[in-house]
Design a protein that fits this description.
Elements lengths: L8 H10 L13 H16 L4 E4 H5 L10 E6 L11 E5 L3 E6 L2 E7 L3 H9 L1 E5 L4 E5 L1 H18 L2 H18 L3 H8 L5 H24 L1
Parallel strand pairs: 2-5
Antiparallel strand pairs: 1-2, 3-4, 4-5, 6-7
Helix pairs in contact: 1-2, 4-5, 5-6, 5-7, 5-8, 6-8
Length: 217
Amino acid sequence: MVLHTPVHVGNIIRNAVVFNPKKWDGSLMDTDSLLSSVERLLTLLRERQINYVLVGGIALLQYVEGRNTDEIALIMALSSLKKLPEIQLTSLGMNFARGTFENLQIDLLLTRNPLFAKVQRQHTTPQTFVEQTIPTATVEGLLLLKLYALPSLYRQGNFAKVGIYENDVATLLHSYQPDMDTLLQELSSYLDASDLNEVKEIVSEIQGRIARFRKKG
């Protein structure tokens, strides 16, 4: 199930900024410039033949409604950033990086993480957006990424993000009913036993909620 109306990446980001008071700095925001920034970024990625995958909230909107985000999240090799000097890195870790392109926030999941590399190789499909066709994580790819992140988010005590990620997982499970046994088996190669058990408990609890919802529906 894919939404029939193509997602407009620029509009999603602009609306998220406009309706987020934390983004206001007291000056008049030129939010329309976000639209052109998105267009230019996507054009550069295509013209320079960058191997990347769209993930995060924008990718999720290709499959379910209701997500709001003011950032673009991409899986990409660190070496690819050399072809994109226009992206100014603000932080760089082992698995993640963050940067800006003009006034656009970009989160990068680096392919030196084996799971991120696998999602790029095996769980990607072209999706039609208003701007252009974009290589996008599949439902299974998004679920792998969300579930992989949850144990770490719990350890960080990031309750708000835990809630967002678990809701994303629940919405995808409810809408698409993927083979979770296969996905959990796939995930077992990238999580230790404790984290994997925690993820299995989360999935089981979500599946229980979905079953109760369907029973009452």
